[in-house]
Design goal:
Layout (H helix, E strand, L loop, with lengths): L7 E6 L4 H13 L4 E4 L11 H12 L5 E6 L3 H7 L7 E3 L3 H11 L3 E5 L5 H13 L8 H7 L3
Parallel strand pairs: 1-2, 1-3, 3-5, 4-5
Length: about 150
Amino acid sequence: MKPLSELKIAVCSDHAGYELKGKIIEHLRSKQAGEVKDCGTYSAESVDYPDFAHPLAHAVATGECDMGIACCGSGNGVSMTANRHTGVRAALCWKPELAALARQHNNANVLSLPARFISTEEALALVDVFFATDYEGGRHQRRVEKIERF
């Protein structure tokens, strides 16, 4: 994976993840991430998560962005939506070990976070682990290739 300073990262949320999304964007910028694309939402007003997860996933699937981070209340909605896009492998994570394994074994390119179930500090730790962990390839590659078989 490219160094963080060279990555273009898409970030999105629904209303439940809006505050966390802002903290994540600040965190990425403080770490000198290459470029951060904010795919919305832009307020804490109630919205539908697919309206923001689809543009994020499209940006990752087309190569406009290298990776993504999606936040909603449970993390499930944004993850399910993003995974509808060919080439997107969104992983719902709430522990650093899950974020590391999602990268190492599954070559995840979108980190989905459950904003209502983790603290800001936990979320930022997950972001750091996700971007610091490389895909191992090898025996995992044939499994990753089977994800998009159908």
